[in-house]
Amino acid sequence: MSNQLLEYRDGETLLEGYLALPDSATGPVPLVLVAHDWTGRRDFACRAADRMAEWGYAGFALDMFGKGVFGKDGDAEGNAALMNPLASDRGRLRQRILAGLDCARQQPGIDTSRIAAIGYCFGGMCVLELARAGADVLGVVSIHGIFAPGEIDNRKITASVLCLHGHDDPMVPPEQVLAFEQEMTAAGVDWQLHTYGNTMHAFTNPKANNPDFGTVYNETAQRRAYQALRNFLRELFQEAGGSKES
Asked: Given 64, 102, 147, 174, which residue has the most CB atoms within 10 angstroms?
C-alpha cells in the first residue's frame, strides 16, 4: 500500500489526516474514514486505515483535535480535556468530522459514490454524529463507541448503522443502549447492534488492560467484530456498485 499525511482545515484549526491506498487498485476505490479514540490520530487509528487499504479500500484516519495534538495512554484527565470540548458541542463535532470527509473525498483515486466511516470509542460517537448530521455516506460503524446523542437537531439519517459493543462496557450503560435502539428505530434507520458478552470498553485495542477503568482488550471479540465490520463494508459497497474486496 501507499500512504501519506494530508493537511486540511476546519476554519482556523489546522488538522492532519493519514491516507492509506491499496497498491492493487486499477480505478477509483471506496473510501473508509477512520475516526480516532480520545488520544487522537495516533498509530492505532493509522493502522486501522492501513487495514482498510489491505481490504482493498482507501482508509483515511481523520484528525479531530488538530495537527500534532495527541493524548497519552493512561492519561484519562488529559484525554478527556481533548475530547470534552467536542463531545459537549455536537455542532462543532459535526463540523470537524465533516471537514475530514471533505478532505478525503477530494483525493485522487477515491470513488466518491462509495464512502463509509468507522470510529473507535470517542470516534464511534463521531461517526454516529456524522450519520445524525445526514452526511452523504453509505454507512457508519461504531466500535466500542458512545451512543448518547447531543442536544442538537438531527437530519434524516440515510446511512446504514452498525454498532459493535461490549456488553460489560461501563461507559455505555444498558439504558443508553436501549435509548439508542429506540432512536434508530424511530428514525427508520437500517441499523444493527452486535453485542459481545463478557467484553468491556476498548476491546479491539491490545494496549487496553485496565479492568478498574473498564478498558480491556478481548481477542475473541476483536476477531468477531472485524469479521462483522468486513461483512458490513462488503455489503455496502457491493450494493452501491461493486467492490473487488473479498
From this structure: 64
Instruction: Say if 118 falls within a structural domain.
Output: yes
Q: How many domains is the chain partitioned into structurally? A: 1
Query: What's the CATH code of the domain at 42?
Result: 3.40.50.1820
User: Within a domain: residue 246?
Assistant: no
pTM, 2 dp: 0.96
> Quick check: is 244 in a domain?
no
d(CA 69, CA 78): 11
Tens place of pLDDT per residue across the chain (246 aa) = 899 999 999 999 999 999 999 997 788 999 999 999 999 999 999 999 999 999 999 999 999 999 999 999 999 999 999 999 999 999 999 999 999 999 999 999 999 999 999 999 999 999 999 999 999 999 999 999 999 998 898 999 999 999 999 999 999 999 999 999 999 999 999 999 999 999 999 999 999 999 999 999 999 999 999 999 999 999 999 988 754 554
Classify residue 202: in a domain, yes or no: yes
How many whole angstroms separate alpha carbon 57 and alpha carbon 242?
Answer: 12
- Count CA atoms closer than 13 A to 99's CA, side-chain side: 22
Q: Which triple of cell numbers denotes residue 106?
A: 477530494
